[in-house]
Specification:
Helix content: 40-55%
Shape: elongated
CATH superfamily of the largest domain: P-loop containing nucleotide triphosphate hydrolases
Low-confidence stretches: 507-521
CATH architecture of the largest domain: 3-Layer(aba) Sandwich
CATH class of the largest domain: Alpha Beta
């Protein structure tokens, strides 16, 4: 019987409920509908295509731009018991061929492939694979409006032409309205479900520190490492030289750090990424070349040494922190020199255009005097009508006033001009300027002309910027950067909502804030102490299996363990993020550590091991693999199976004994009784004989019951 999406989520991933939007997306795909998924990093995008791939007949093709990302995703799925493969140039021809043959034979449920490889192979071996879904990851790469445009993505328009009835899912964590529309158009999606998840990542603290020196920046990172000594973080720099310099400073202080940038050899970059992913280093100092292929869930902090070029890039980079949902820190060091350098780069490129407008947004974010999270969310078209309480502005708020009337004046002026003005023209209209363009267009005749003469140009610029940051006004980049009033802004115009603005203060260069040094204390909280011990257990397992620690269990799962403190296998299987395979494979070591912490005997209760076998049976794991996972002989596993049949806990026997063998064994027992045992042992194992007798007794109970 086909398992439900929720059953598959519990079985393979160990979660007992879907996150917001996941079930709606999954149901849409299963019904054959195209979908555009916009979810923040760590929001659960992968589950949206992995569950339909498992539920539907056939195989899902997942298009991904980076080899490292493909490998991590496929490895993580295989660890959870999902048949998956990555096909790319980094693997040998023999490995790729084995994966292709398995896919054609129907033994693979998800294939990860690059867009280049998909274009090359679409008319060859892929024609022999039953494809149930195309999932296009990092879909913003298809759009020139996006921040990471890749021309090869535009060739994916052929998918809908060749597979008109196969659903396509486009997924991204960073796409504004223009980019979302462009994705739909270029992929030829047919009336897709658009799921726009919240961009809010409340677990990320947001902090901007202007005017800081090199020494103070290193000191800030030093405090972060000391605060999270057993976790990792990223320092993003604008140049290779800065990455090298920051790395050397951390090494001199005795921290485990490495560097990553495009100037290193492929082997050096690979080793740096491996060390970071496996938790061997506490920090990686890198240019933006690093990170897109990182699926590490327990990054506790991200620092930007320089101003990013746009909000999308910044949001994607800070989004690599705290993917497990636990608290994480983000810090942006901001200087006017960074802004000047960015402007210079754009002018030299010869195509500043929209890139300059996006840099303006980044500048507004860095210089904001209102809640930074509200600024970030408004860029993506999401309004939040309250402050977050988890950014530096909220924690040290400026003086504010009721700005409702100012918003009404500005928004009314935008509406009365037919939304045909930009920021500077709006400013001039409000201040009653007599410039020729205003007179020519008749804007001097509108009711709101000159209603803001009492404020200076700088004041109006600051307040209009806040209105944009708060999501009251938005910039139409595709319409000459004209301003439009949002739904939120209309509510203020109609008097249905009020708004607070921060008082304008003439900006002066700020010195380093001189924050008090954070005191790192040894925790006396039992849950935190146990969590650190469980991290040590995870690290030893990861080292022994040569896999990244987060692929064993995430920090969120370890925290749930530390809170629940499971002392038996049954209790352990209830921990969030513990699926059947990993539960049986790793459970004993974690349970032993928890029992010791609780002052119990390290030995688990009798019967634990045969109940592990039941878990693996329910997961559909073959006999030989059960023995391998549990580290015991197949004879012992068969003994468990026989006991489980005796207790009516297993009623499906076909995978353990052939019907012909069963009939031969039971026929001999019926004819000769126990005397047949020794004779049968010449042809059958003791375990198989026990299974046959248990099945026979099971049928007798059914007949008599």
């Amino acid at each position: 019987m086909q398992q439900s999406p929720l059953d598959l989520l519990i079985k393979f991933f160990g979660y007992r409920s879907f996150r917001p939007g996941q079930r709606e997306i999954i149901d849409a795909v299963i019904s054959g509908r195209d979908v555009v998924v916009l979810m923040p990093t760590g929001g659960g995008k992968s589950v949206c295509y992995q569950i339909p791939a498992l539920h539907m007949e056939g195989c899902a093709i997942v298009v991904s731009p980076l080899i490292a990302l493909m490998e991590d995703q496929a490895t993580a799925l295989i660890a959870n018991g999902v048949p998956a493969a990555a096909i790319h140039s980094g693997r040998s021809d023999a490995d790729n061929l084995r994966a292709i043959e398995a896919a054609i034979a129907g033994r693979i449920k998800l294939i990860y492939i690059s867009p280049e490889r998909l274009v090359a192979d679409i008319d060859t071996w892929l024609t022999r694979v039953k494809i149930n879904l195309f999932a296009i990851d990092e879909a913003h790469c298809i759009s020139q409006w996006g921040h990471d445009f890749r021309p090869v993505y535009t060739q994916l328009s052929f998918i809908k032409q060749k597979y008109p009835s196969t659903p396509i899912m486009a997924l991204t964590a960073t796409a504004d309205k223009l980019t979302r529309d462009d994705i739909i158009r270029q992929l030829n999606l047919q009336s897709p479900l658009r799921w726009i998840g919240s961009f809010d990542r409340p677990n990320l603290s947001l902090d901007v520190q202007p005017g800081s020196t090199k020494k103070s920046r290193v000191a800030t990172v030093q405090r972060l490492i000391r605060q999270y000594p057993n976790d990792s973080g990223i320092v993003y720099t604008l140049s290779r030289a800065a990455a090298e310099e920051f790395n050397e400073a951390l090494l001199r202080l005795g921290f485990r750090s490495c560097v990553y940038h495009a100037g290193l050899s492929a082997a050096e970059r690979s080793e740096a990424q491996r060390a970071f992913t496996n938790g061997d280093v506490q920090a990686v100092c890198a240019t933006i070349a690093f990170g897109m292929g990182i699926d590490k869930s327990n990054i506790r902090w991200v620092v930007h040494n320089n101003l990013p070029g746009n909000i999308e890039s910044y949001y994607q980079e800070i989004g690599r922190a705290g993917r497990d949902g636990l608290p994480a820190r983000t810090i942006l060091f901001y200087s006017m020199q960074d802004l000047i350098m960015r402007r210079h780069f754009l002018e030299e490129s010869g195509q500043p255009g929209i890139a300059n407008e996006k840099l303006d947004w980044m500048q507004r974010y860095a210089e904001s005097q209102i809640c930074r999270r509200r600024v970030l969310l408004s860029y993506f078209g999401e309004s939040m009508e309250h402050d977050c309480g988890n950014c530096d502005v909220c924690l040290n708020p400026p003086s504010r006033f009721d700005g409702t009337i100012l918003v009404q004046k500005a928004a009314s002026a935008v509406l009365r001009t037919g939304s045909q003005v930009g920021i500077f023209l709006l400013n001039d209209i409000l201040r009653g300027s007599a410039r020729a363009e205003i007179i020519r267009k008749g804007f001097d005749k509108i009711k709101t002309y000159g209603v803001g003469r009492d404020l200076s140009t700088n004041e109006w610029n600051a307040y209009i910027a806040q209105m944009i940051q708060l999501g009251l006004l938005e910039i139409a980049f595709d319409d000459a950067n004209h301003l439009r009033v949002t739904d939120y802004g209309m509510r203020v115009v109609r008097g249905e909502a009020t708004v607070e603005l921060a008082y304008y203060v003439a900006r002066a260069p700020k010195s380093a804030r001189g924050k008090a040094k954070e005191q790192i204390k040894i925790s006396t909280d039992p849950t935190e102490q146990l969590l650190e011990q469980l991290k040590a257990v995870r690290k030893s397992i990861a080292a022994a299996d040569n896999i990244p620690a987060y692929m064993v269990f995430s920090d969120a799962s370890l925290l749930d363990m530390a809170k629940r403190r499971p002392a038996t296998m049954e209790e352990f299987m209830l921990v969030n993020g513990v699926g059947e395979r990993k539960g049986v494979r790793f459970g004993k070591k974690f349970i032993t550590a928890i029992r010791k912490f609780e002052g119990l005997t390290a030995t688990m209760p009798q019967g634990t091991t045969y109940k592990e076998t039941l878990i693996l049976h329910n997961a559909g794991v073959p006999l030989g693999e059960m023995a391998q996972i549990k580290g015991i002989s197949t004879e012992t596993v068969l003994g468990h199976i026989a006991r489980l049949i005796d207790e009516d806990m297993i009623t499906n026997f076909a995978s353990y004994i052939a019907r012909k063998d069963y009939e031969t064994i039971i026929g001999a027992f019926k004819a000769q009784g126990d005397a047949a045992w020794e004779k049968l042992k010449e042809d059958y194992s003791t375990g198989l004989l026990r299974v046959a007798r248990s099945i026979y007794h099971y049928h007798q109970r059914k007949e008599n019951g």
